[in-house]
Amino acid sequence: MAKEKNYMYKSWWKILCVVLLVYTFTWGLLVKVPNLPALEETSRNLFFHVSMWMAMMTLFTISFVQSIRYLRTLNHKYDIYARQFAVVGIVFGILGYATGSIWMSYTWADPNNPTFESFSALAREPKLIGAAIALLIYFAYLVLRDSITDMDKRARISAVYNIFAYAMLFPTIWIMPRLLPSLHPGQEGNPALNFKDVSPAMRMVEFPAFIGWALLSVWITTLKIRLNLLKEKKMM
Amino acid sequence: MQKIRILFFLLSLLFLTFFAYAQEGTGKTAFGETMRSNGRIYVVIAVMLTILTGLILYLVRLDRKISKIEKEN
User: Fold this and answer.
1) Domain-embedded: residue A104
2) Does residue B63 lie within any of the structural domains?
3) What is the ipTM metric for this complex?
4) Which of B7, B36, B48 shows the shortest C-beta gap to A12?
5) If exposure means fewest CB atoms within 10 Å of the residue's CB, which of A13, A60, A72, A137 is most exposed?
């Protein structure tokens, strides 16, 4: 792939990322949110907490695609791409988990709040368990990579594992939590983020927020990839 | 250059949404009205934008550093 065509080196999407994030940060705090019980103003976390998960999904999808490309071409650079996208995906997953814990401690775990029954109700929350399982599977991907010393073997085995890890994201995070009773919106068959909970004005900020944070995560990953490519070039 | 023109056109359409107040939620939460009425919400926005600017500048600096090293090779 010619260097000029490679999107890692272009700057238009990075400028777009900054503009979208500035828009998210300002308008995300100013837009009027519907007055929901217990949530109230914290609905704004939609633009930040949920964005982290969206960024993570974007990164894991790109990592999955790079793994497939590696298996098709056996070109080592795709292995580097796949690894870096998975690593930064894990970072954003952990951020999503941390921001979710903060949000939850003021809403679900609020002792004055009727949805709060006990800590075990929170611990049994399907989306939390599902997300933890998904992240652990990706941690195992990193451990797998470091346990194999031969470069080609490592790339091939981890590419195959990456495909399975990606496939496991869907049942654990998206499908099972929707089927089970849960504190998260979107439980027991109802779609998440339905129109009662998210006003149209919020949607105007929600999608730019998702795109802005996803672009930021891709930007960070491309910097890591370029560093790694330079390192590999020096070693070869 | 053509791409950047298209981009700015689309983004200017996005900023028109600042004036789209026709459909909204009730939006009258006690906390929200307090922070908005005495203007303190703008302090929060200013703080967040400062943090964001700092992080973005750091990323831009890293990007340029890496580009420079790539050009040398």
Assistant:
1) yes
2) yes
3) 0.75
4) B7
5) A72
Over residues A108-121, mean pLDDT: 65
> What digits encode the pLDDT tens for the residues B15-55?
655 554 444 445 566 666 666 666 778 888 889 999 999 99
Tell me which amino acid residue A99 is: T
Q: Which residues of A touch B59 (CB under 8 A)?
A: 219-220, 223
pLDDT of residue A116: 58
A195 is in which domain, residue-wise? Answer: 47-235
What is the chain A residue with the closest CA to B71?
A230
**In chain A, how many domains are there?**
1
Q: Tell me whether residue A16 is in a domain.
A: no
Residues of A in contact with B25 (CB under 8 A): 32-35, 199, 201-202
Closest CA to A83 of A137, A124, A37, A142: A142
Q: Is B43 on the interface with A (CB under 8 A)?
A: no
Question: Which among A34, A220, A233 is the nearest to B73, CB-wise?
Answer: A233
CB B17 within 8 A of CB A204: yes
A14 domain residue, yes or no: no
Q: Which residue has the tokens 């973005």?
A: B56
| B49 within domain boundaries | yes
Burial of A81-116, coded b for 16+ CB within 10 Å and e otherwise, reads bbbbbbbbbbbbbebbbebbeebbeebbbeeeeeeb
What is the percent of chain A where pLDDT is above 70? Answer: 81
If one counts the domains in chain B, the total is: 1
Instruction: Answer whether A226 sits within 8 Å of B70, measured CB to CB.
Output: yes
pLDDT for B22: 45
How many Å lie between the alpha carbon of A90 and the closest alpha carbon of chain B? 19
| Confidence bin at A223 (pLDDT 50/70/90) | very high
User: Is A223 part of a structural domain of the chain?
Assistant: yes
pTM score, two decimals?
0.82
